[in-house]
Each structure stands twice: as C-alpha cells, then as structure tokens.
C-alpha cells in the first residue's frame, strides 16, 4: 500500500503565501519521491485555484485537496462550494468531517454522508475524518464512537461506487493540543474500522488508513511504524516546510 502524507493548512495563508509554501516543499523533495509516497496539501478555498495552477503548470509531484465541500450541488447557497466546482479545478482529494467542522459548524454524520455521495459521483477521493472526545475515551467507548460515525457516514453508499477512500482517525482530544495518541491505540481503532468495512463487503483494497492529531517530526516515525497506519494527516506542522519535509522523510 502506497503511503500518503496530507498537509491541512486550515484557515492560514493567502494565495501568494500558499504558493510560496508549496514551492518550498516541492524544492526539498527528491525527484522520484512520488513513487514511494503521495504528498497532498489542503489550502484554503481562496488558494485552491492558485495552488492547483502551479501544480499543473510545473508538473509537481504534489496533489491538492479541498478542506471541505458543500452538501449541495448548485443553487442559492451563499458561501458554499460544490463538488462540481471543485471538480473543475482538478482537485484530487477533499477532507470530510474534520472535528473542527463538527464542533464549530455543527456538521453531522448525515451531512457528511451526503457530501461523500456527491464526491463519489465526480471521482474526488474523500478523506473521511473520525474520532472520539476525551470523555468518550475516559468511558472506554472510543471504538464504538468511531464505528458509529463510520456506519452513518457510509449509510446508503453503494459498495461498488467507492473503490478509493482515505479514513483519517483524528482523536478530537489530540487535535492542536500537542498530545498524540499512542501508535498502538491509533492502530487498534483503524483495525476495527477496517474490520467493519470488510464485514460489510466494502472493497477496501485501495482504501488507506491514516492518523491525524498533533503530528510532528518527533512522533511521525513511531506512528508510521504501525502496520495499520498508511499515512498521516498533518495540521500545524505542515505550515513549516522544513518540519513537513522531515515528516515525509520519516514516513518513507
């Protein structure tokens, strides 16, 4: 399984700063790195066009992702961006269900389910985030919580309609806190998710299972040493080109 490292830039950088960061990352990459690992950056919506233009024009071995997408395809939805619009930009991936979307904008698994179905129609690979709160973990229901999210998000999804997907386990208590889940605990969650999908006849040969939540160069190698972890979803550390490159190298 080819590994993947995703940099989520969140609501940082204008389009010129995003281009500069992209170019710095690309400059530090070895020429054939794409043969061993996929590298993805997720800028703000205002930078997507600029970043994708540089990727296409310079034929970079880096791919792009949106940070979110609307549940609607077209119409009077001020401020929204549809999957059809993302498709016109040649976007490769899209993050769904990040905990910040859930907590700050009250996004539900049912809404994520609709977004997932929209992305599948136009072949943008979804990066589906799941994860439990600190309270869930204290009650030892973290596995049940993550599986319940998966059940609702995949409800009604045709099994033959999704042959490529990324499941990102991001424990909510770890995001932006500096606290990272123990590699074996992250692996346990992802193994349970994988087992659920297999038991429900999803074809997961092209699914990748990644970890996110306070990922840095100090913990990247230990996380990637877990057989169940195929990649990393990196937040704040992806804004530092040197650290992001170190994370990529440690993941090889």
Strand and helix map with partners:
Elements: E1 3-8, H1 15-27, E2 37-42, H2 45-58, E3 63-66, H3 83-88, E4 93-96, H4 99-105, H5 109-121, E5 125-130, H6 134-138, H7 142-153, E6 165-169, H8 183-199, E7 207-212, H9 220-224, E8 231-234, H10 241-251
Labels describing this entry:
globular, 8 strands, TIM Barrel, 16% strand, 252 residues, alpha/beta
Task: Put the structure in a nutshell.
The chain has 252 residues and is an alpha/beta fold. It is built from ten helices and eight strands.
Number of helices: 10
Q: How many distinct folded domains?
A: 1
Major sheet: 8 strands, parallel, barrel
Shape: globular
User: Which range does the strand content fall in?
Assistant: 15-25%
Strand adjacency order, main sheet: 1-2-3-4-5-6-7-8
Please give the CATH architecture: Alpha-Beta Barrel
For the residues shown, what is the average pLDDT?
94
* Structural class estimated from helices and strands: alpha/beta
Low-confidence spans: pLDDT under 50, at least 5 residues? none
The CATH topology turns out to be TIM Barrel
CATH superfamily, by name, is Aldolase class I
Would you mind describing this structure in some detail?
The mean pLDDT is 94. The chain contains 10 helices and 8 strands. The chain has helices at residues 15-27, 45-58, 83-88, 99-105, 109-121, 134-138, 142-153, 183-199, 220-224, 241-251; strands at 3-8, 37-42, 63-66, 93-96, 125-130, 165-169, 207-212, 231-234. The longest helix is centred in the C-terminal third of the chain and has 17 residues, at 183-199. The protein has an 8-stranded parallel beta barrel with strand order 1-2-3-4-5-6-7-8, surrounded by 5 helices. Helices cover 41% and strands 16% of the residues. β6, α8 (183-199) and β7 form a beta-alpha-beta unit. By secondary structure, it is of the alpha/beta class. The two termini are 12 Å apart.
């Amino acid at each position: 399984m080819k590994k993947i490292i995703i940099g989520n830039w969140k609501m940082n950088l204008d389009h010129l700063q995003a281009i500069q960061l992209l170019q710095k990352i690309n400059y530090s990459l070895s020429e054939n790195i794409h043969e061993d690992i996929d590298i993805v950056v997720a800028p703000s919506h205002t930078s997507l066009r600029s970043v994708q233009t540089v990727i296409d024009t310079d034929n970079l071995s880096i791919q792009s992702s949106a940070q979110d997408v609307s549940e609607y395809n077209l119409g009077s939805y001020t401020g929204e961006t549809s999957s059809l619009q993302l498709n016109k930009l040649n976007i490769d991936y899209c993050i769904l269900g990040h905990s910040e979307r859930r907590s700050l904008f009250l996004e539900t698994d049912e809404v994520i389910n609709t977004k997932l179905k929209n992305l599948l129609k136009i072949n943008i690979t979804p990066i589906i985030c799941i994860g439990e709160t600190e309270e869930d973990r204290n009650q030892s229901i973290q596995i049940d919580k993550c599986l319940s999210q998966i059940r609702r998000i995949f409800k009604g999804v045709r099994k033959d309609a999704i042959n490529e997907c990324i499941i990102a386990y991001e424990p909510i208590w770890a995001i932006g806190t500096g606290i990272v889940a123990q590699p074996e605990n992250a692996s346990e969650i992802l193994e349970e998710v994988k087992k659920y999908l297999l038991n429900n006849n999803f074809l997961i040969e092209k699914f990748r299972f990644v970890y996110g939540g306070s990922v840095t160069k100090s913990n990247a190698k230990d996380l990637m040493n877990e057989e169940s972890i195929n990649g990393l979803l990196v937040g704040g550390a992806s804004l530092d080109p040197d650290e992001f490159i170190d994370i990529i190298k440690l993941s090889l």
